[in-house]
UniProtKB/TrEMBL annotation:
Membrane topology according to the record: Multi-pass membrane protein
Official protein name in the record: ABC transporter ATP-binding protein
Keyword annotations of the record: ATP-binding, Membrane, Nucleotide-binding, Transmembrane, Transmembrane helix
Domain ABC transmembrane type-1: 22-304
Organism: Nonomuraea composti
Lineage top rank: taxon: Bacteria
Molecular function GO terms recorded: ATP binding
Transmembrane segments: 20-46, 58-78, 136-157, 163-183, 244-268
Localization of this protein: Cell membrane
Main location class: membrane
Length: 589
């Protein structure tokens, strides 16, 4: 529990921390007063055993009990309302901190399989964490301080009863630890599985056409949604069943301890070791102690689940952000220089394979460079490093003579426009999607870039023109149309460097020609690096880099590379064969 409070304290801001500490003090006071109220029953009963009863002392003790009960209820009301204040502090602080932190993480960190877990953490995860101060902490703090007060006080009644309570409390603490350990282990599995299912549900909805086309909706061996849902149900049942066993162990121990203390008290009373009023006092304390302890046992599982949520928020906050320079450097031009670039993904344990292995390239400003090579060679990774989605593991990438780490992410983003394969369009109109790149662009600006990117014909065809809503992730536009929107967006941004990952999917001839024209237009007056899949793009390039297993296998222009008869020539002939074309002396698409 102390760890949980420390984590909450760490994650809150100064104001939230102050509220948390005051709330904890109020709750601890509440628990102590509750314990005292019950302990005072023994001296109260003693005043009635004299003949005549000692009424003045009776009213003194009765007054003390009434004061303890009244103060306890006042603190209860105060700490409950403080709980909501701290819960709200936690929600605000967590959303702010997580939002700020996510904005500093490398873009490449946001893989598809992370969307489910992140969404769950920002939604249910933060609610779980806010639930701790709002609803749970009071029961935990009172559940510990009230019995602790009663145990300390019971030594004043009789040391043997005090010792029995202490031994019983240790046993209960062990059982509680066991229960929480069981829940923690199984909740980790459950949370992981539910995150996977959430990602799979999104994937399942998005990939319907592919799944149906290949008739693989029912094939569990492909690791489908059904499989992940079954796994999630399994981990949920394990959490419930094993958690129930943990609860049985805790409540069994509690019953055993209570029975043993009652038997001891009755035994000591019968052999005359303790008086009748003390026996009544001990029995009242024992039975009243059951209440907060039972509540603690019932809530232990929920407390653990919510504490796990804090652990996950902390783990996310511990993902190192991309370092940003205090004073970003200014590039001198847009020539790009890669020296000794090596890169491994997610290299926390040092075991990840090297994806790029010693890349040395100079890309002159204003040139058009095509990157080709077999699947998995590292082409898209190279493009992502140029856009500073990640930092290189070794070596350096310089733009305009300055390392991208000195330029900072914002500097690199200002210099580059990116057109990637999986074009993401936001729910909104086509115009909104373009204005992301330049919020103050006029309608005339939109028309100009639309003409160049051949988006104008798409806009004219659509019933609402620029105001046509594109649907979530651009689902209402074809692949070629989405690429045209993306190219128009890059043109509107008017960055001097364009990073373009050409779509591998075949486009219809009209879209293919339009996209090729748009790329040629984009390349005018800009430094363009294209991961090229279309022969027309490759041939148009000034330089071609052939990547193979993370290294540059060949470089040069189309004619010299074809004449060399190496990897590039093989790539070229394969592509021609795939398209069923004859190799002509021009060799162009
Ligand atoms: N986010 C990632 N995390 C871990 N490994 C990755 C990640 N992205 C790519 N890889 C791995 O890095 C290697 C290079 O991938 P990359 O996408 O750069 O290749 P590519 O040449 O662009 O391939 P393709 O032409 O098929 O798109 C592959 O082995 C791939 O599995």
């Amino acid at each position: 529990m102390i760890t949980m409070i420390r984590y909450l304290d760490e994650l809150l801001d100064e104001r939230g921390r102050r509220h948390l500490r005051v709330m904890l003090a109020a709750q601890a006071g509440q628990g102590i007063l509750q314990g005292l109220g019950f302990l005072l029953v023994a001296p109260l009963v003693t005043t009635l055993t004299t003949t005549p009863p000692d009424w003045s002392r009776f009213w003194l003790w009765a007054g003390a009990i009434a004061a303890a009960v009244a103060a306890h209820h006042a603190l209860l009301a105060w700490s409950t309302s403080l709980g909501y204040v701290v819960g709200t502090d936690v929600l605000t602080s967590f959303h702010e901190r997580l939002g700020n932190h996510l904005a500093t993480l490398p873009i490449g960190w946001f893989r598809g399989d992370r969307t489910g877990p992140i969404g769950r953490m920002l939604g249910k995860g933060t609610m779980d964490v806010a639930n701790i101060p709002a609803h749970l902490l009071r029961h935990v703090v009172v559940g510990l301080t009230a019995p602790a007060t009663m145990i300390v006080g019971s030594f004043l009644l009789d040391w043997r009863i005090g010792a029995a309570f202490t031994a019983g409390a240790l046993l209960c603490a062990l059982a509680l630890r066991l229960l929480m350990a069981i829940v923690r282990r199984n909740d980790d599995d459950y949370d992981h599985d539910i995150g996977v299912s959430a990602s799979r549900i999104v994937e399942y909805a998005r990939q319907q056409p592919t799944l149906r086309a290949y008739g693989v909706l029912d094939r569990p061996e492909l690791g489908t949604l059904e499989e992940s849902l079954i796994r999630q149900q399994g981990s949920q049942s394990r959490l419930t069943i094993r958690g129930a066993w943990g609860m049985i162990a805790f409540f069994g121990t509690l019953q055993l301890v209570v029975t043993a203390v009652i038997a001891l008290t009755v035994g000591l009373t019968l052999n005359g070791s303790i008086s009748l009023p003390v026996m009544i006092g001990v029995l009242v304390v024992t039975l009243r102690m059951l209440d907060p302890l039972s509540q603690l046992g019932e809530l232990a599982g929920t407390v653990q689940i919510n504490a796990d949520a804090i652990g996950r928020v902390r783990a996310l906050l511990a993902v190192p952000p991309l370092p940003e320079p205090a004073a970003p450097a200014e590039p001198a031009g847009t020539a790009i220089e890669l020296s000794g670039v090596r890169f491994r993904y997610d290299d926390a344990d040092g075991g990840a394979p090297t994806v790029l292995d010693g890349i040395d390239v100079d890309i002159p400003a204003g040139s058009f460079t095509a990157v080709v090579g077999p699947s998995g060679a590292g082409k898209s990774t190279l493009l992502k490093l140029l856009g500073r989605f990640f930092d290189v593991t070794e070596g350096s990438i310089r733009i305009g003579g300055r390392d991208v780490r000195e330029l900072g992410s914002a500097g690199v983003s200002r210099l580059t426009a990116q057109v990637f394969q999986d074009v993401y369009l936001f729910e909104g109109t086509i115009a909104d999607n373009l204005r992301m790149a330049a919020p103050h662009a006029t309608d005339a600006d939109l028309d100009r870039v639309a003409r160049i990117a051949r988006l104008d014909e798409v806009v004219e065809r659509l019933p609402d023109g620029w105001d046509t809503r594109v649907g979530e992730a651009g689902s209402t536009l074809s692949g070629g149309e989405k690429q045209r929107v993306s190219i128009a967006r890059a043109l509107l941004k008017d960055a001097p460097i364009v990073l373009l990952d050409e779509a591998t999917a075949a486009l219809d001839p009209a879209n293919e020609a339009a996209v090729a024209d748009a790329i040629a237009e984009l390349a005018r007056d800009r430094t363009v690096i294209v991961v090229a899949h279309r022969l027309s793009t490759v041939v148009a390039a000034d330089h071609i880099l052939v990547l193979d297993h993370g290294r540059i296998a060949e470089r040069g222009d189309h004619d010299s590379l074809l004449a060399a008869g190496g990897t590039y020539a093989r790539f070229w002939h394969e592509r021609l064969r795939a398209r069923g074309w004859q190799l002509t002396p021009e060799g162009t698409a």
